[in-house]
């Protein structure tokens, strides 16, 4: 019988162990399925983010293409700048077309071998003019630009002389001397006019590119004025700034960062702060402390007033909770001792008209006693009551505050 029961216990234990293994396997499968689902959701979120980033990038590219298309469209419109730039090039082409045939005929009339001289002479003027534009674009030295201008004008002047001589020779073709001279002047003018028009065009484009936005110009002017004032006012800091910029690798530190570091090195304080500023600040704080002390408005008293205002909801009148005036001393802290404040007495805050012996003894009011009891609870016990904080809480004379304090203390078993 015992062996059968033992076998039953073993079988039950084996069943429980197998059930635990099955539960563990199910839990493992559930965890793996949950992890796979989490990974799938994370992958989907990453794919969504990538897709959104790609859409935003494509939208930026589309906007850039639209801006370029609008800019290209504006370039094709008849704006004054476009008319001037393209009209000048058209005049240049007309002048070259008018001056080149006369040169070719002139040299060919001498010999067919001189046919390339006319195009070469005219081309030299235009190549040198284009060289001036290239020198302006690359910001080459001024002497290079003037050299190219001289060569261009020299070639154009020689071509103009050839055309003028050709115009005078037209008297052999039935023109009068005056008419031939007019033709010669006209050919010379268009020969010189083309390069001159192109040069003026280049000057205008260069000057217009150098025009600065009015706001940027005002900012640059203000910056230059500030640097000038800095050199005049803080010479030692400017010297240190130069040392920092010279010692640091080129381009690794900006002038403003160097200025901040130089200020700290020389003045020993953050920007805009000096030893004099700190001394003046301390003097001002001392003056404020002196005024508060003379007016019996110490920081501790102000803290108590704020606490009482939070507890009892007192308003902040001119005299504060204590009912005393806190006027500014005449002449300030450095002007001498402040005038004595007017003593105010009674709960009505009236000036004291007589001595304390002459004033009738006022009975303690129950409302005042309740207020002092609340004050004692807020301060942590009746032993923390004093004539000052009771007087500030009630707004009464010192004698009345003493009697209130003693009455509440006697209720609490203290004297």
TrEMBL record:
Coiled-coil portions: none
Basic and acidic residues: bias regions: 1-62
Membrane-spanning intervals of the chain: 83-104, 110-134, 146-166, 178-198
Keywords tagged on the record: Membrane, Transmembrane, Transmembrane helix
Domain of life: Bacteria
Region named Disordered: 1-77, 318-363
Protein's name according to its UniProt entry: DUF2637 domain-containing protein
